[in-house]
Amino acid sequence: MKQPLHQIATGRAGSLFESDIAQSEDALRAAITGKRVLAIGGAGSIGSSTVLQIAMRQPDTLHVVDQNENGLAELVRRLRSQPDIWSVRDFQTLPLDYGSAAMRHLLASQTPYDLVLNFAALKHVRSEKDPFSTLQMFDTNLLKQERFMGWLAGTGFAGRFFTVSTDKAANPSSMMGASKRAMEHVLFNSSAAAALPGIKTSARFANVAFSNGSLLQGFENRLARIEPLAAPRDTRRYFVSLQESGELCVLAAALAPDHTIVIPRLDPEKHLVTLQEIAESFLRHHGYEPAHYADEREACAAARIEAQRGFWPLILTVLDTSGEKPYEEFMTDRERSREMGLPNLRVVDYLAADRVAIEAMLRETEMLVNDVSAGVLSKDRLKALLALVEPGFLTTHKDAAANLDQRL
């Protein structure tokens, strides 16, 4: 019997957080059972895994918002196929943009929610390939978050509000990572945050193995299409499974202390794994030996011939694209972590940026989004916006002429 596919990346057959969930079960049920829950971006990989964790603990209301209609349909199918493990009196899926007028009308129509989780984001490093995609990322990750928080405050919300972050927010080398660090500032220390009662939490964690749009999911798609696999050399990443991502998020959303960011207790010596190693293990899992190539065209031309011989082309590329760094980390040297009473999780205390700087970043971003006459839109200008709240980004950002769209 083959090992579970996620084990190729995580090295674990079971969940890292099994003991954390078992220890917290009573507290989780107290926070969720009979409560009103709203999940934004809940049809994505991490969001849907977390929605399942919530649905298993019998909330009274579970509303799931996502612009991906197909993802919402698949979420419904997934839940309806497991009738014995979940129960919700008021379950709705809504294909809405969480920063839209329709979202505001939805919030105004509802009794205040007890628990709100936000997974909506542009989260690909490749989004900094041009200033237009980057501005859209800022709009989604920052402005809509601020707008949504203001609307939520207007409903009388006083519960728990969680927004997922990323390990790439620590010492960010990409615009995406820096935008998620800026999102943490909006969540915890903006004027919108000050006006929103309740407990606010976040989480930074590893890459989610075989999640939608991930490099590892790309391996599966390429294998099905008889195309070469590709991975950067000397690049290490932490990985969690889809189940682990949902468990971590539900624990962070329901139980973490106010103004903290939950991180997994992973050891760089033990848990950082190279992408080349994962690609090679993935091919062997499917019965092929890797055949290393340096040239994309040669690898593409050889794919079918190699497959007939029991081999598969694997292109190993140089790590020379914008925003990519050779390893990930969960916190900076300036941040402090502490125990949260669980064996495999800790919390990082939010390290604040100046509120005046946060507001300046938001207002200038808003001007760029709403006024095409606001001046030339450039990567340097957007980078300077992030530097208002994260000055170190001017040093840690990895810029390059190449981008991920120029790689197989």
From TrEMBL:
A Pfam short name: Polysacc_synt_2
InterPro entries: NAD(P)-bd_dom_sf, Polysac_CapD-like, Polysaccharide_Synthase-Rel
Domain Polysaccharide biosynthesis protein CapD-like intervals: 37-343
Similarity remark: Belongs to the polysaccharide synthase family.
Protein name per the record: Polysaccharide biosynthesis protein
